[in-house]
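User: Reviewer 2 asked us to show a designed sequence for the structure in our supplementary figure. I'm pasting the structure tokens here. Could you produce the per-position amino acids so we can include them in the response letter?
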């Protein structure tokens, strides 16, 4: 696969490390656990959206855009990474935040990712839950066009075929790393939301005949809807790359048992995962995505879902900046 055929800007810190998690492997009683550190992509503290934005911003620059519009939840990591790259590229950035949780906490509404969005000088606006955010972005784009601007809309999570190329690239990168150290990967597990990460990974891993199964652990939608979203985007990504039909429905698997009460609402198993990763591997997860992904990863290991001698890679998709918006999810004692 030759991704240089597509417009791309290079600003991510790549390749991200692929590291063993020896302490967690021991504590959880095997299999061999590894972590792919896409929390270290560099931009604005890192995260999976940076890989997608390399291709999306390549496209935006090619189209002559001077203004970037995107949307996400209040504590969106995607919004933070988009605001950051817009600042570096000297483009105006408008972020439409959907209030999916209804939280009135000051930390949730102003700290964490929101603080960084504002630091990067993005203009923020708030919309109630279940607003048609795509329509809201189109309306803003139309208004900006009448003001003489050239807006470029980045879909929520950067999840379209252009953005998903970032994860086709990640699949190639992971295979190269695994092959270089003689690591046979038996499973790849990660948190899945707007579908671009899993769609890109599956497309790249299937097209290169890696035989590595991918499991997306859902953070919002029900299993059937999530798998359908990922499959549809993988199909479109393959089509965009000229390899239509390579991805089959059976290549797309999601487990949505770890969502809890809903998107952006912390779960007990997610908080346990955050503490386990922090206290044994010094790795920071976030309560919205990576902790729910890790909760599924941990629970499936405990249930014996994987073989004891399997090599399992957890893709860390980032998000620890959101921790500061979720201080109240932790039960740490007062001190004096
Ligand atoms: C966006 C995000 C995800 C989900 O990735 P999608 O491509 O939207 O499915 C996972 N983890 C973190 C930290 C994210 O910000």
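Assistant: Here is a per-position design you can include in the supplement:
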């Amino acid at each position: 696969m030759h991704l240089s055929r597509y417009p791309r800007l290079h600003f991510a810190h790549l390749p991200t490390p692929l590291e063993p998690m020896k302490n967690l492997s021991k504590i959880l009683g095997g299999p061999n656990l590894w972590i792919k550190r896409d929390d270290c992509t560099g931009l604005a503290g890192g995260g999976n959206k940076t890989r997608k934005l390399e291709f999306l911003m390549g496209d935006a620059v090619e189209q002559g855009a001077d203004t970037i519009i995107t949307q996400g939840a209040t504590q969106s990591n995607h919004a933070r990474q988009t605001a950051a790259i817009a600042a570096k590229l000297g483009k105006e950035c408008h972020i439409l935040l959907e209030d999916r949780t209804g939280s009135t906490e000051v930390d949730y509404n102003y700290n964490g990712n929101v603080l960084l969005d504002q630091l990067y000088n993005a203009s923020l606006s708030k919309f109630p839950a279940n607003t048609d955010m795509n329509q809201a972005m189109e309306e803003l784009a139309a208004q900006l066009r009448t003001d003489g601007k050239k807006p470029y809309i980045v879909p929520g999570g950067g999840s379209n075929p252009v953005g998903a190329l970032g994860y086709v690239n990640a699949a190639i990168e992971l295979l190269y790393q695994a092959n270089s150290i003689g690591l046979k990967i038996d499973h790849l597990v990660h948190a899945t939301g707007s579908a671009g990460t899993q769609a890109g990974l599956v497309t790249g891993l299937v097209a290169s005949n890696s035989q590595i199964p991918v499991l997306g652990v859902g953070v919002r939608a029900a299993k059937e809807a999530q798998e359908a979203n990922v499959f549809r985007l993988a199909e479109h990504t393959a089509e965009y790359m000229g390899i239509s039909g390579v991805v089959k429905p059976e290549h797309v698997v999601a487990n949505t048992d770890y969502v809890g009460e809903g998107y952006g609402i912390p779960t007990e198993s997610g908080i346990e995962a955050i503490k386990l990763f922090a206290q044994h591997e010094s790795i920071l997860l976030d309560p919205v995505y990576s902790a729910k992904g890790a909760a599924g990863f941990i629970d499936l290991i405990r249930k014996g879902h994987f073989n004891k001698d399997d090599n399992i890679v957890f893709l860390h998709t980032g998000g620890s900046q959101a921790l500061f918006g979720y201080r109240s999810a932790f039960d740490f004692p007062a001190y004096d």
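For the response letter, you might also mention the following. Residues 47-48, 77-78, 157, 159, 191-198, 286, 289-290, 317-319 surround pyridoxal-5'-phosphate (CB under 6 Å). The beta strands are 18-20, 32-37, 67-73, 92-99, 123-128, 151-153, 187-192, 214-218, 253-255, 311-316.
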